[in-house]
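ok, trying the design again with the full structure, not the truncated one.
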């Protein structure tokens, strides 16, 4: 299982502590330094069954600076995936990629159901 985090993000740190407290094995990847590629994002999005908007960090500064709330509506899914691949700070975190599931953000109840 891969967990994409930004170490300056308090939610990411809380999620990592939760994983360690529950002895869940994972591989950590820094989302800013090693942002997901277009191919990875496309695969995870397809596998997840989630709306593509769930992959965007809608509360992030970059999302707001780029005025993506309005721009995403005009973009194709493919263009949105390409945009996500340009900067890890656009991606919702923590992002958990399992063998057959994807989790965006840290919702403890959802994590308990999927990971424990």
């Amino acid at each position: 299982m891969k967990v994409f985090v930004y170490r300056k993000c308090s939610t990411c740190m809380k999620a990592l502590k939760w994983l360690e407290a529950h002895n869940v094995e994972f591989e950590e990847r820094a989302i800013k330094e090693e942002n997901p590629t277009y191919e990875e994002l496309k695969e995870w999005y397809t596998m997840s069954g989630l709306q593509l908007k769930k992959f965007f960090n809608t509360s992030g500064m970059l999302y707001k600076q780029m005025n993506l709330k309005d721009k995403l509506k005009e973009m194709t899914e493919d263009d949105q995936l390409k945009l996500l691949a340009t900067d890890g700070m656009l991606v919702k975190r923590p992002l958990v990629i399992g063998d057959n599931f994807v989790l965006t953000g840290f919702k403890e109840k959802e994590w308990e159901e999927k990971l424990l």
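Keeping the full-length input from now on. The mean pLDDT is 97.
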